[in-house]
Amino acid sequence: MAAFTQEQIEQSAKDILVEFEDGFQFADIFKLVPKAMKIVEQVQGMSSEDKKTTAINLIDYVLDHVDVPGPDFIVTPIIKAVAPYVIEVIIAASKGEFGINVKS
User: Fold this and answer.
1) 30: nearest Cα among 82, 68, 81, 71
2) Within 10 Å of residue 61's Cβ, how many Cβ atoms?
3) Ramachandran sector of residue 42 (left: φ over 0; alpha: ψ -120 to 50; beta: rest)
4) What is the pTM of this model?
5) Exposure on the CB side of residue 82, measured as CA atoms within 13 A
6) Where are the beta strands (DSSP E) in the chain?
7) Contacts for 46 with CB less than 8 Å, ≥ 6 apart
8) 60: closest CA among 13, 11, 8?
9) Three-state SS at 57
10) Were 58 and a residue from 30, 36, 47, 92 both cysteine, which residue would form a disulfide, CB within 3.0 to 4.6 Å?
């Protein structure tokens, strides 16, 4: 299965948008990214790259439909630019690449 269609992204985003009805704060990126990743992780037959692309598309859609702090035309592109790196950090952490909580 390839990445989600626009309709599937919009449907999935509805569940996430409820979380941010009162607006989106910068720290909320750490809530938004895992939620998007969890949604796409449940899809069978999608490649890792398609899952990442779909998660980013889902995040972008949510960010386009929430109230962010500051001017949207400045803040939204910055948060969108950070999101793929947050995904990479979460993936690396889930693979144990940081050595956190490793008993020596």
Assistant:
1) 82
2) 20
3) alpha
4) 0.87
5) 13
6) none
7) 1, 2, 3, 40, 54
8) 13
9) helix
10) 36
Tokens of 4: 């989600």
Q: What is the DSSP letter of 101?
A: T
Question: Taking the CB of residue 72, how many other CB atoms lie within 10 A of it?
Answer: 13
In contact, 31 and 83? CB cutoff 8 Å? no
Matching residue, tokens 């704060």: 25
**Each residue of 26-79: pLDDT tens digit?**
999 999 999 999 999 988 888 999 999 999 999 999 999 999 999 999 999 999
Residue 72 corresponds to which tokens in the numbers above?
């949207």
Chain position carrying tokens 């398609």:
50
CB-based contact 37:15 (threshold 8 Å): no
Q: Please answer whether residues 33 and 90 qualify as being in contact, where contact means their C-beta atoms are separated by less than 8 angstroms.
A: yes
Query: Residue 11 corresponds to which tokens in the numbers above?
Result: 């449907």
Tokens 């569940």 correspond to 15
